[in-house]
Amino acid sequence: AAAMRLGAVLGALRPALPLLLGLSLGCSLSLLRASWSHGAAEERCLAPGRLAPPARGAPPEAPEEEPGPGHEDFRPRIVPYYRDPNKPYKKVLRTRYIQTELGFHERLFVAVLTSKATLNTLAVAVNKTVAHHFPRLLYFTGLRSTKVPHGMVLVAHGDERPIWLMYETMNYIHQHFGSDYDWFYVMQDDTYAQAEQVKALVTHLSINQDVYLGRAEEFIGGDEQARYCHGGFGYLLSRSLLLKLQPHLDSCRNEILSVRPDEWLGRCIIDFLGITCVSQLQGQHYHTYELAKNTEPEKEEVEEFQAALAVHPVSDMTLMYRLHKQFSRIQLDRAYQEIQDLQMQIRNLTALTPAGEAGVTWPVGINAPFLPKSRFEVISWDYFTEQHLFSCPDGSPKCELSGASKADVSEVIVSALEQLNRRYQPLLRFTKRQLLNGYRRFDPTRGMEYTLDLLLEAVTQKGHTHVLAKRVSLVRPLSKVEIIPMPYVTEATRVQLVLPLTVQDLDYVANFLDMFAMNTLDTHDNALLTLLFVYHPYDAQRVGQVDVFAGVKAMVGELEKRYAEVKIPWISVKTEVPSQIKLMDIVSKKHPVDTLFFLATVWTEVNMEFLNRCRMNTISNWQVFFPVHFQEFNPALVYRGEQTASSSTDFLRDGHFDRHAFAEACFYNSDYMTARTKLAADILDRDEVLESMEVFDVFLHYSGLHLFRAVEPGLVQKYTLRICNPRLSEELYHRCVLSNLEGLASRSHLAMALFEQEQANST
Length: 763
Description:
Blueprint: H1 2-13, H2 17-44, H3 98-101, E1 106-113, H4 122-129, E2 137-141, E3 154-156, H5 162-177, E4 181-188, E5 192-193, H6 195-203, E6 212-214, E7 216-218, E8 227-229, E9 235-238, H7 239-245, H8 249-255, H9 261-273, E10 280-281, E11 284-285, E12 288-290, H10 303-306, E13 310-312, H11 317-350, E14 382-384, E15 388-389, E16 399-400, H12 403-424, E17 428-443, E18 447-460, E19 465-477, E20 495-501, H13 509-521, E21 527-535, H14 537-541, H15 550-562, E22 570-574, H16 580-589, E23 596-599, H17 608-617, E24 623-632, H18 635-638, E25 655-657, E26 665-668, H19 669-683, H20 695-702, E27 706-717, H21 730-742, H22 747-762
Parallel strand pairs: 1-2, 1-4, 2-3, 12-13, 20-21, 20-23, 21-22, 24-27
Antiparallel strand pairs: 4-9, 5-13, 6-9, 7-8, 10-11, 14-17, 15-16, 17-18, 18-19, 23-26, 24-25
């Protein structure tokens, strides 16, 4: 009976037995850990201010170090602001660039030592091969030739002696660039340097050390431990070493005798700084390769050649170009191999993800196509053939395929055939017969996508042919994004407004002058105004009796009385066809070449916000600015008597940006004169051609400047029905008519107006 009762109790407790065992084990371990912690705490705290000895077998603990002289650079410091109340307040002058204020330096400066004999040969070859890969490169020579090659910045010291050239070069680099760069790379014009490898080298070196890195050579008859860097293979100097070396350059010039400039510099650095040249530093190797006579770069396959940062000596320009071609091929092969390795790693890792192999995108490593969340985000495809494009920039349904688009399509078709032949050869060989269908679209997440339907002729190994249609997909991925350097501009430049006026513009002049006075004269903005009165020949003959612009001149006089320091000049022109270029020619001759023009219209409402953007977006000898103003719709169609003006919350709503208008422009007079000179040489004496062109066309076709055309919310124009001059060219007249039609109202407003009209007619 007792055994039965015990079995019943155990049967009842069996479900809770794991829980009880777990609780017991957990409590035991926690008590044991608490006793160990308590014992260790008691051993540590023997007495106030004294540390217990370390446990047996344990390593001794390092005492806490106080911040010393070597640690202040790594600890943040708060500098309190204190202003002496007894001294007058002075305005703080901020630096032009924030990196100057923060003490940032550029990475690498390159100096190329050349001579008068090799300036137009080897130095030009260096400039064409590697100069554009370096952020800053200067050429240093003794005597300057009569003509400096285009695109090269040359510094001539006036003496061909090698030691003097090295001495003057080091002084020049320290004086002009010592505070702007972290690294200085010095090479000769008979040296080929792999620019990308040199830039990668300096990114892996610490700037806190004195670095003298290059191909280490022994001095002839000198100390066995001392080394200098061979100048033919280039060498790298750190900024800290250059700063320490500069005070000793004069002593080195007077005390050290040497024939070779690289030996002289190496001896100077060793004697006064105690630093010798090294070929390896901080785990980085400076690999070089010495070329033998009659070397064939295409046949050099040794590892030392392929890993070389610098190759010397290069005897002629052709050899320099061949070296550049060979090293570019080596770098390209490495890049393709690296891409294949990365793609293999992506495939292997993607197989371990929850999505499995289905998660691998095509092409491997490129972002997946954009997935729209609504019908408004769908990216449309553009249809094309080998001759035509069916999505044209001007909105027409069909246009001829030309220019960059034609080259793009041809390159894509050739690439598709190469990929097919690479995949199926030697079993099949494909040739193109015809492009049946072509589709392309730009996906901002990955690049340009193509889908081609090709009619191909396939040839087997036995010579049998077969015609088939095949669809292929290609992607031109987005490459490395680069920031285009732009010259520095300020908002302090004076803007010269130019306003051409005809008889049809008289009703709107008063509003223009009022806005100009309120937004520029009252705010003392740095802007001036010049009026251009365009007289018809009939009105010009009667100007003595009736001046059609007398009212405008009276308004200008009132403004000059109200603002005593302001003068608003005007220029009178007689013409039947007011060509924009002919009018601008007259204004250009009456202003200095550095004048910043803003070519306005009588409907333009000038304001400070836009004038500042005009100053910032217009760069002399670099960029011109053609804003796209916002045109308000016809209030009679938009509001239909309900309201007469939009509220502040409806800003830029009831209107559109008029892309057909090119009358407003910001440009410098010097840029216009340069482009106008090229136009005059092209058209000779055919002045009638000017009637079919605008200032925009002059800059587009006869200047190499950037044409920046963007929507401008600061330029808002009230609705007005423009009078289109039929004497202008057909294109300009058609553009004016389209501007008027599209400026009436939006499609929804026009539909409502037609609906109401039909309702009224039906009743």
